[in-house]
Amino acid sequence: MIRVCAVILIFLVSISLLAPLLAPEPPSALDLDVRLSPPSQRHLLGTDELGRDILSRLLFGGRISFLVSIAVVSFSLLIGLLLGLICGYRGGWIDEIFMRLADIVLAFPGILMAIGIIAVLGPGLQNVVLALVFIGWVSYARLVRGLVLKFREFEFVTASRSLGASSGRVVFRHILPNVIPAIIVQTSFGLAAAMLAESSLSFLGLGVQPPQPSWGNMLSDGKNHLLDAPYLTIFPGLAIFVAVLAFHLLGDSLRDQLDPHLR
After folding, report:
1. Which domains, ranges and CATH numbers included, belong to the chain?
2. pLDDT (tens digit, 0 to 9) for every residue of the chain, 263 residues total?
3. Is there a contact between 123 and 207 (Cβ–Cβ < 8 Å)?
């Protein structure tokens, strides 16, 4: 299953990166003479209400979706990992401050908080990433903190401290390697969640702004043509479904492989 999911994701990322070479037309090229054309030899996936090629927009939209997902997870992981290691190993007032902040963030539905942040900052790709990072670091920080609290009481950590090892050496040499497997699994789920969140915000008009394509705003553009041109929503919806499902199945498979209790 890991190989199948990896192949699917590599394929999706590859065609998105190669969109300038693979796209038959520019994603924003208008041709009102062929508006709402069904899939044909000229337009393999049809055209939208402005005559733009769906295949081209789907390929370029994938670049946005994967870019946002990777950016959000990278920054969230970096912040959450550092805070989780510090809070879990040091404890004290640092732990209290950041964990109470995490509780405040978790007290609100994530998508509603993201909408509120973007409403203040304004719509746009950078603000979407900022809003999702503000929400996303919490899950990594709490996961890492919990694991550090467990591992810091193990005998090999106690022995290392008794031999005079510094806190940095104990954390990065002995504790962090045991935390990485859980982080890898969480990262896979985080990529799926970030992609869904970006698509939702773009669907609501708060994410990527037209004419720049994304899978979310493609769904929004097609919602008024569900009966006369259903392919406008089928293809971007299918792309989101396949990518998110692949990330989730990859995470489940990695968890089974990396967790010795599930083998």
Report:
1. 51-262 (1.10.3720.10)
2. 778 888 889 999 999 899 888 888 888 888 787 888 888 888 888 888 888 889 999 999 998 889 999 999 999 999 999 999 888 888 788 888 888 898 888 888 888 889 989 988 888 888 999 999 999 999 999 999 988 888 877 777 777 777 777 777 777 877 888 888 889 889 999 999 999 999 999 888 888 887 888 898 888 888 888 888 888 899 999 999 999 999 988 888 888 776 655 45
3. yes
Prediction pTM value: 0.88
Determine the Cα–Cα distance for residues 122 and 118; give it in Å rounded to an integer.
5
Contacts of 55 (CB under 8 A, 6+ apart): 23, 24, 43, 44, 45
Q: What residue type is 236 in one-letter code?
A: P
| Residue appearing with tokens 């037309």 | 25
Q: Locate tokens 């609501």: which residue?
A: 204
